[in-house]
Write a structure and sequence with these properties.
This protein is an all-alpha fold. It has a domain at about 65-75 and about 125-380. Helix content is about 80%, strand content about 0%. The chain has helices at about 1-5, 35-60, 65-90, 100-160, 165-195, 200-210, 210-220, 225-265, 275-285, 290-305, 310-335, 340-380, 385-405. The chain is globular and about 80 Å long.
Length: about 400
């Protein structure tokens, strides 16, 4: 009887029967995202990466065009006060039609280029002579610097510094010198390749000056009348003030730094004081990188001269001048027209150099200044103190409305 009971099949309910492994299915929890949602997120992420790379390639390829437009804007802001000064007597007497804006722009061009030509005709012979002599003496300066480096290694030997540390210091000094030379070479090559484009700067600036009001009206008409158009008008006014202040500050700084450096180098007994001072004034237009390159060139030239201690005096002079320029002169020249923290300026310049090279250095600060003005007006228009505060307040209001519903 027991054997028969053991041989009878077991009666197992269908709902408790175990399915074979080959027929088992995996059921997702209802709270987990569906496969379609996961695929959609992945596709959107890939499309975003592709679009960002495409935009970056376009920005890199158009960097010289942006550079040209920025320089044309700088030149337009330089000419605009002269144009207003020429037209002011005609406006005061109500005969403005006898001095159209295009004619005033041409007269301003004649005055500016005439002044530049007069300065070049008086300074060019001496500058060219010093430049030729400086170029001929470059190999001897290089040999002198190598000799100074060997003397420094000899002093390390007398101080009983380990050979590994000496080799590391020598290697680092060589790498720094090589990187400086490469940076200078790339900078001068970039400037040389951009020289033919400089002819277009006065042409583009002429249209900026002539049709500035048309551009302004075109931008304002793209906004609906009322509150939005008034806000757009305020943004354009702030942008104009900011860019004008930055251009004025850069040009005045170039002139003052060039003049101070020429006088200071003469007083310190530098051999090529006029040439190096003009280079310092021109490089002042390149934020952060320009003064650094000038400092390296001038200090290296002074160290390679007959009196190596002159390099220390020149370094102290340039450091003091840099502090006075950045913290006393420049803020008074700008006069609150541009509101950027020094750290923001440094980071913007470094980011611009990484994205677009030398043109990116020029474009970075005006771009950040424009973005700052736009951000400030967006917050003012929405009535918030900061963007994060607006997000938090908006999310809290949404939660409160959902709770009430």
């Amino acid at each position: 009887m027991q054997d028969d009971e053991l041989q009878e099949p077991l009666d197992i309910p269908e709902e408790t029967a175990v399915e074979p492994a080959a027929f088992r299915t995996v059921r997702l929890d209802p709270s987990s995202p569906s496969i379609r949602s996961i695929v959609r997120v992945v596709v959107i992420a890939l499309i975003g990466v592709a679009i960002s790379g495409w935009v970056q390639s376009i920005v890199s390829s158009l960097s010289y065009l942006f550079f040209l437009i920025v320089l044309s804007l700088f030149f337009a802001y330089l000419i605009d006060p002269i144009v207003k000064l020429i037209r002011r007597p005609f406006k005061a007497h109500g005969v403005e039609r006898f001095m159209p804006r295009s004619v005033a722009i041409l007269l301003a061009y004649i005055l500016v280029f005439g002044g530049i030509g007069f300065a070049i005709s008086n300074l060019a012979p001496r500058v060219v002579e010093q430049a030729k002599e400086f170029g001929q003496n470059l190999p001897s300066y290089g040999a002198t610097l190598r000799q100074k480096l060997n003397e420094l290694n000899g002093r390390f030997d007398r101080l009983r510094i380990p050979d590994e540390i000496q080799s590391d210091l020598t290697k680092k000094a060589t790498e720094i010198a090589g990187s400086i030379s490469a940076t200078l070479g790339v900078f001068f090559l970039t400037v040389a390749t951009f020289v033919p484009w400089l002819i277009l700067i006065p042409v583009i600036a002429f249209f900026f000056l002539k049709d500035a009001n048309l551009f302004r009206l075109g931008v304002l008409r793209s906004f609906p009348a009322g509150r939005w158009r008034m806000r757009a008008e305020m943004v354009l006014q702030d942008l104009n003030t900011t860019l004008a202040a930055y251009t004025r500050a850069q040009l005045i700084s170039c002139f003052l730094i060039g003049l101070i450096c020429v006088l200071g180098f003469y007083m310190l007994g530098m051999k090529y004081a006029l040439l190096l001072g003009i280079i310092a004034g021109i490089f002042e237009f390149v934020p952060l990188l320009g003064p650094a390159l000038v400092g390296v060139i001038v200090v290296a030239t002074a160290v390679a001269s007959e009196n190596p201690w002159r390099g220390l005096y020149v370094a102290v002079f340039l450091i003091v001048l840099r502090v006075i320029q950045d913290y006393l002169m420049y803020p008074r020249i700008v006069r609150g027209g541009i509101h950027l923290h020094p750290l923001a300026i440094i980071l913007a310049i470094l980011a611009g150099e990484q994205i677009a090279g030398i043109p990116g250095v020029f474009v970075s600060i005006p771009f950040v200044a424009v973005a700052t003005v736009a951000y400030r007006h967006i917050l003012d228009h929405r009535g918030h103190r900061s963007l994060i505060a607006s997000w938090i307040e908006g999310s809290e209001q949404t939660k409160q409305s959902n709770a009430d519903a």
